[in-house]
Amino acid sequence: PTPPRCERITSKLFNKTSRCAYTSCSFNGEYQPALPRSFMGFSYMYDRTAAIGLLDGTPTPYGSQEMSRAQIEDKGREVCALDAAATAARFAATQDAAKSHLYCGDVAYVAALLGALGFERGDTLTMTNKIKNVELVWTLGAIIGKSAELALKGMGAGAGLLSLLLAICTIGVVIKLIRKLIPAGRQGTMLGSPRGNKFGARR
């Protein structure tokens, strides 16, 4: 689809007019705490921005890059305006080159999500996949998600309680690790990232 149409379709996933029972709300009627001043997006958010060289055309498999929501949106429109051959050529050097035909939708999703969460176009965001040489990966999210799934399946009180305790312990370990790796003045809250088994972090 054309860039404007892609943006319209993607934005429909995030209903900002849903009724919400909380004083601080996100999209689809869900609770959301107030946004801290800085944001660290990793995993999928990094994979579809810095890792594919969205801003500067230089794919960066590992590292960090600051960008604004406006830059993501503007560059995303440029990507969506490319035809199939131009898209393949533009992203031939990326690790996910075989999926480059999906980059238009992926970048539109990231931009729409950030907007739905309340980030202004000029807000500065940091996309990264490492903190002090420690790689940030999706497996933690998978563990927490699976633990919650087991707890809700009603596999017996003992199994459910064990799964719940595992999830709580896992979250505690992660929070402790984040606090250890990130300077005290730059810590913040954890956020789920666009894909269910991956995470973004606020700092």
Give a description of the structure:
- The protein is an alpha+beta fold.
- 42% of the residues lie in helices and 12% in strands.
- The strands form two sheets. Strands 2-3-1-7-6 form a five-stranded mixed sheet. A two-stranded antiparallel ribbon has the order 4-5.
- α6 runs antiparallel to α7.
- It starts with a helix and ends with a strand.
Task: Summarize the structure in short.
This protein has helices spanning 3-11, 44-47, 69-80, 84-90, 103-117, 139-152, 157-181, and strands at residues 39-41, 64-68, 124-128, 130-131, 134-135, 190-192, 199-202. By secondary structure, the chain is of the alpha+beta class. The strands form two sheets. A five-stranded mixed beta sheet has the order 2-3-1-7-6.
